[in-house]
Amino acid sequence: MTSVQVDGIAELVTNDPSRGDETALGVLTDAAVVIDDDRIAWVGPSASAPAADRRMDVRGRAVIPSFVDSHSHLVFAGDRADEFTARMAGTPYDGGGIQRTVQATRVATDKELRALLATRVDEMHAQGTGTVEIKSGYGLTVEDEARLLRLAGEVTDETTFLGAHIVPPGVDVDAYVALVTGPMLAACAPHARWIDVFCEPASSHAFDGDQAREVLEAGVAAGLGLRVHGNQLATGPGVRLAVEFAAASVDHCTYLSRADVNALAGSATVATLLPGVEFATRSPYPDGRALLDAGVRLALATDCNPGTCYTSSMPFVLALAVREMGLTPAEALWAATAGGAAALRRDDVGRLTVGAAGHLTVLDAPTYQHLAYRAGVPIARCLDLGWPARPAEAGRTSPI
Ligand SMILES: N=CN[C@@H](CCC(=O)O)C(=O)O
Ligand SMILES: [Zn+2]
């Protein structure tokens, strides 16, 4: 066991409301954190920090819990920059481009996909993300979906089976739902913690309410946790289905009816907002302020994928939430850390409390408010505690 005392912290965000300023962020000033092995052993004022094997002085910087990015699609090959350019000129997003990524991903080797994935995970880590959820969904055959999940499982425990991403062109929808809920689920469940379905009104490339219900029921029977892509393209059944199934999260929530907001308020389901998608698809931003005021629990995530949002940057997402969705900098930071943890039903990340994972993100700034204030400036990075066995040596890229 090796312990490290991190001190010189001008402002420490704990996400423990019983600490410090007693807001949801639980902000302490002039603070220290002691990490024993990879867990937090002590948090408090610098002056009373217990001794540790090593000391790391962050010299007046702010420290926050590492971001929890609860929605990404990192295992893919190919590029769709041309679609982004077309959208900026007015072409709407309809999900049809997913098939292009499916084609490019199917022909990529494991080695190629592993290298692409490693680069993206490293990019996230370098911008302060400590936990990432990764979905399949660009394989859409039994073998390819299982392959993508195996690769994702090499870099995270938060793996999500998204065979129900789109219906592959030329395939009968009922036959495909039967495949997803039968042999594909059987092959993928051992590699997945979650199941997800892209649910939109009938006539899109995605799955309607009845089909999505079948997918979620099969996921429950297979022992997987539930997530839903819902209400991205239009108001539809996704949000209310997620709430009915007590899914951990419904993601996107771009188009919400009053009934959707009422259903989410006080429910077990976190609404995960993905403002990078609205940015990169020229869609209207959901009213995050109204959701919070209605009592909805929010998370923020990147949705990093080649189609709707190719950013790995949680600080960018956080700045958009402040500027475009009416969240305060404090609310946005909470949603990007503790909110993401809630969306993954985790209580060991997204907070800096005794017993939690030692995932600290240091900011080249005196306060977390700089995350939105200095948008676009790379001020956030995961604190490298220099543990003896770095994951790279163990065949993994980052401790995400
Ligand atoms: N909406 C569904 N899936 C992804 C986009 C996938 C793509 O276009 O490649 C999303 O979350 O936005
Ligand atoms: Zn997504």
From TrEMBL:
Pathway the protein takes part in: Amino-acid degradation; L-histidine degradation into L-glutamate; N-formimidoyl-L-glutamate from L-histidine: step 3/3
- The question of whether Amino-acid biosynthesis is a record keyword is answered with no
Q: Which GO terms describe its cellular component?
A: cytoplasm
The enzyme's main class, written as a single word, is: hydrolase
The record's cofactor note says:
Binds 1 zinc or iron ion per subunit.
Query: Which chemical reaction does it catalyze?
Result: 4-imidazolone-5-propanoate + H2O = N-formimidoyl-L-glutamate
GO MF = imidazolonepropionase activity; iron ion binding; zinc ion binding
- Which Enzyme Commission number(s) are listed? 3.5.2.7
- One biological process GO term for this chain? L-histidine catabolic process to glutamate and formate
Q: Which cofactor does it need?
A: Zn(2+); Fe(3+)
Q: Which residues form the Amidohydrolase-related domain?
A: 63-370
Keyword annotations of the record: Cytoplasm, Histidine metabolism, Hydrolase, Iron, Metal-binding, Zinc
> For binding Zn(2+), which residues are annotated in this chain's numbering?
H71, H73, H229, D303
Q: Is Glycosyltransferase a UniProt keyword of this protein?
A: no
Instruction: Just give the chief location class.
Output: cytoplasm
Q: Specify which residues bind Fe(3+) according to the UniProt entry for this protein.
A: H71, H73, H229, D303
SUPFAM superfamilies registered for this protein in UniProt: Composite domain of metallo-dependent hydrolases, Metallo-dependent hydrolases
Q: Where does 4-imidazolone-5-propanoate bind?
A: R80, Y138, H165, Q232, T308
Subcellular location, in the record's words? Cytoplasm
Family affiliation: Belongs to the metallo-dependent hydrolases superfamily. HutI family.
Q: What role is this protein assigned?
A: Catalyzes the hydrolytic cleavage of the carbon-nitrogen bond in imidazolone-5-propanoate to yield N-formimidoyl-L-glutamate. It is the third step in the universal histidine degradation pathway.
**This protein is called what?**
Imidazolonepropionase
